[in-house]
Structures are given as structure tokens and as C-alpha cells.
Amino acid sequence: MNKKRHRKRVIPGFGLSMGVTLAMLSLIVLIPIASIFVSASGLSFNEFIKVVTARDVMSGYQVSLSCALTAALINCVFGVILAWILVRYEFPGKGVLDGLIELPFALPTAVAGIALTSLYSDKGWIGHAFAQIGISIAYTKIGITIAMVFIGIPFVVRAIQPVLEKLDKQYEEASHMLGASGKRTFFRVIFPEIFPAMLTGFGLALARGIGEYGSVVFIAGNIPYETQIAPLLIMSKLEQFKYQDATAVALVLLVISFVLLLLINAVQVHMSKITSTSH
Amino acid sequence: MSQTNKAIQQKSTNSNAKGVKVLLISLGVIFIFIMLVIPMIAVITYAFQDGLKAYQEAIFDPYTIKALQLTLLATVTAVAINTVFGLFAAWTITKFKFRGKQLLTTLIDIPFAISPVIAGLVLVLTFGKIGWAYDFLNAYDIKIVFAVPGIILATVFVTFPFISRELIPVLSAQGTDEEEAAALMGAGGFNIFRKVTLPHIKWALLYGIVLCTARAMGEFGAVSVISGHLRGKTNTLPLHVEILYNDFQLTSAFAVASILVILAVIILILRNLIEYKAKKAGEK
After folding, report:
1. CB proximity B147 to A under 8 Å
2. 20 to 30 Å CA-CA from A188: which of A7, A13, A153, B247?
3. Domain check: are A244 and A180 in the same one?
């Protein structure tokens, strides 16, 4: 029986490559990840609840979630516009614009963080203009959102772009010939096609925003109960050597990201069912 | 009459479409300019605000050079380890049928999905003073947390899936026919990989290496948790930027940051070059 199974695999090296893969994955990722559950089990249920419902922790979750959500929504709007102009239009400098989209992946987050903070502080190039009309950006939730927009934009653009490239122009032309306006054609014909891809980008940008530390921590200013993000709370609990508290905060953050991704996945499956039956 | 009407209508939709085009392009360009280009210009401008001499002093500061060396060491190690892993993992996942393949793929992507601070936390929980591996490591006098191995480990952790992610789609699109043919003709595993598989994934592999390098050299959250911020010892370039910034040595902070901006621009150019070549070679 066993021999038969082996014979089915024509290409050699399964045992070796599977072994190396599993060994490296376990050593570097799985075993350390398991520690978080070991450490969390050191807390009783009541202690756990007490840590994660403390006022600063709750406000940290709220800041991280609300800013990441706003940023991901803004990124959806500009992500669709950018993907659209990169796929459908020709204009000078298009290649450079396309190449720049990945900058937030290539630029170290700490560099982005200090650059954004200096730009949007009340004395900075951009912040100065807003300060004159009484709006502070750095050290407020607006600043946190801007940093999360910065870090999230490539996810949405790069999710939509390939789908838009493959989209058959026939439907658009048909819709146009039947007399639908450009706006109507976009929202009734094109948008449903790119929606699942947009949702993927939205989910990735959101997850990144919730967990993001480097680019956000500088511009956040870390005012207790106002602009402290959840990853910062983990960091400060670690610095006070409260390992179990840090674990509890991290565990809830992990669960939140996980649930959000599952939800988005479910919507996506639902959406693709609708579009596949409508064709 | 109706013909002219139609012509007029056509003309108006044409000019309308042109208006939309100009509007959308302007919106996109302005967004990218404000969000991505101005911050880069700002770093360079602030770096030179006290003149060339101050810039040079910040760049050639011994701590900066030490930090640069550590960043390079961590990046090179992370890229090397993840290339080995990426090749083995992509080969396993795409060339063989086995149970739990989906689970394996998901597990590999974990570091991509979790916050870098949490990545640092799990390493501290494993190898730090309260970690269960601490006694064992201590017995052999190996220090990981607040030491260079920790920095390297954190960098490897956060960039772990980067190369396998790029290889898997290319390899699975390519199928297993060629490898099977080679195997039936008697080629060994390594020879099949080198002569049949590798030429197909050359560009995807390079692409993954570039992305991995970018993330590895810029990693901040995970490294920050595990480094303990020992100047000249466990300070990477991004951490050095933070220390200078929090010390209100703004010009120095931006001068050091400008090194990273230049590296980022080089990486972007390489990335686009490789993508262009890969498209030409038909890999993507």
C-alpha cells in the first residue's frame, strides 16, 4: 500500500523538500506563535477580561480599528481611480506613476513615519496650512488615518489592476450601445466585476492598518485614551515587563484581524456566486 | 435632423468622457504626489537643512555605520534563509499532491497577516527570560533577545513568506509535466530543479528577493520589540532613525533616513525592471 503511494509520485524529492519546509516553518513561525497561547494560558479568564477591557486597551482597539477602517475606505476610492487610470488611459508619466505605487512597501515604515509627522505637524509644509484654519493633523486621529492611507494604498491598487486588465470590453461596449451613460456603465457593469478584487485589497489594507506600528507611532503622538494605537499598547506593556498583559492585548488583536478577514472572505464568496449566476 | 442630434449627442459624450479622463488622471496624480512623493522630498530636504557638513557628520557617525552594518547583516541573512525556504516550500506545494496543502499554504502566510509588534512579542515570549526556550539557550550561552540573533530572527520571521508567495503562482501555472518527463528519463531531483524548474522561475525568484530585501531592511516593529535599543550593538538603521528623532536630532534623523530613501528608490527601480523582464519572458 505504502509502496504504491510512493510510486505514484514520479518527481523525486518529496520527503526531503517536505521535511525542510516543515522544519523551517515550525522552527521560525509555528513554535514561536504557539508561545502566545502558552503565555495566555497563564492568565485566568477573569484576569484576561480585566486586562483587555481596561480603559486604555479598549480605547487603543477603538483608535486602531476606526482609523484603519477609514483609511481602507479612502484607499478603496483612490485605489479604484488609480487602477482605472493606469489600465485604461494613456498619459505622460504613466510608467513612473505605476512604479511609484509600491513605494510604501519599499520605504521603511519608520522613515515614512517621521516624514509624515514633520509634514503634517502644525509647523510642517502641509500641516501649517491646515493649522491656520484650526485643524491639527499630526498627533490626532486624522494623522493616524493619513499614515494608514499611506501604508495601505498599494494593496488596493495592485488587487484591482489585474482584474481590470482582464475585463472584457464587450460588456462595456454593449452597455454603451444600449444607451447607458458612462456613469451607469461604470456602476452597473464594471464595478460589480472589480468589487471582489477591491474587497481583497480593502481587507489587506485594513489588516495592515490595524497591525501597523512604524509609520503610525510617530504621527500618533501617543496621547493616552486618544491617539494610542493597539500595537503601541502591546509595546508599552512589554517595556514594563508585563508579558501576560501584552499577550492578552495581542491575542484579542489577532482575533479581531482574523474575524475581519473571515468576514471579507465570506462576502467575497457570496459576491462571486452572484456575479457567476448573473452571467 | 435626428442625425445632427445624434452627432451632437456623440460629441457631448466624447467631450464628457475626455473631461472625466482629465479629472480622474488629475485626482490620481495629485493623490500620489501628496501621499508618496512629497514625503520623500521632505526627507531629503530636511536631511540637508543644516548643510552638507552636518549631513556628512550624521552619515559617517560610528553609530550610523554600525547600524548600517547590522541592517545589511540581517537583510542578507533573511534573504538567504527565505530563499532556501521559498524554493523548498514552493517546490513541495506545487509539484506534489498531498493532504493539507491548503493548510500548509495558510500557515506559511501567517507572518504576513500579523502585526509586526506581535511577531516581536512571540519571539520574546519564546526566547526571552520568561520563554520556555530560555533555560535551554542559557545552558549553551546563546543570547537571542536583546542581541543580534534576535534582530536577525525577527527579520527572518516577518519576511518569511515573501519569496514562496512569488514562486507558488508561477510554478503552479507551469504544471508538473516537464519535471515528470525529466524524472521518467532518469534525472535526479536536484538536476530536475536546476535544469527544468529554475529557468522558469528565474524572474519570479529575483522579484521575491527584491521584495524580501525591501521589507527586511525596513523592518521596524518586530525588531524594535526584540532589540532592547542598545546603541552600536542591536541598533538597525530604522531603529537608529527613531532614536535620533526622539532625541530631537532631527537633521541627523533625516540624514540617516535619506540613506533608506535612496535604497528604497533603488529597490523600486529594480522591482520594475524585473517585472518588465518577467513579462517579456512570459512568466507573469
Report:
1. no
2. A153
3. yes
Q: Say how far apart CA A247 and CA A42 lie, in whole Å.
A: 10
Question: Alpha helices of chain A — where are they, by DSSP H?
Answer: 2-8, 14-25, 31-40, 45-52, 55-88, 94-100, 103-106, 109-120, 125-132, 141-166, 169-177, 182-185, 191-211, 214-220, 230-239, 243-278
Question: Do residues A37 and A98 both lie within one domain?
Answer: no
Q: How many CB pairs under 8 A join A and B?
A: 266
* A228-232, A258-262, B256-260, range with the lowest pLDDT: A258-262
Coil, strand, or helix at residue B244? helix
Domain that holds residue B16: 1-47
- Measure CB to CB from residue A111 to each of B13, B190, B241 and give the nearest one: B241
Looking at the structure, do residues A82 and A127 belong to the same domain, yes or no? Answer: yes
Q: What pLDDT shows up at residue A275?
A: 62
Residue B284's closest chain A neighbor by CA? A162
Nearest to B121 among A28, A109, A246 (CB): A246
Same domain, A147 and A252: yes
pLDDT tens, position by position, A101-122: 999 999 999 999 999 999 999 9
Q: What is the domain extent for residue A201? A: 45-278
Residue B167 sits in the same domain as residue B247: yes
Which of A21, A91, A243 minimises the CB distance to B130?
Answer: A243
**Count of the separate structural domains present in chain B:** 2
| Interface contact flag, A21 B245, Cβ < 8 Å | no
Overall domain count for chain A: 2
Q: What angle do CA A237, A241, A243 make, to 5 degrees?
A: 70
Q: In this predicted model, what pLDDT tens digit does every residue of A157-177 receive, in sequence order? A: 999 999 999 888 888 888 888
CATH value at residue B87: 1.10.3720.10
Q: Looking at the partner chain, which of B36, B189, B218 has a beta carbon nearest the beta carbon of A100?
A: B36
Window 80-109 of B: residues touching A by CB (8 A cutoff) are 81, 84-85, 88-89, 91-92, 95-98, 104, 107-108
Query: Of B122, B178, B284, which to mutate for an interface test with A (greatest number of A Cβ within 10 Å)?
Result: B122
Cell numbers 435632423 correspond to what residue?
A: B1
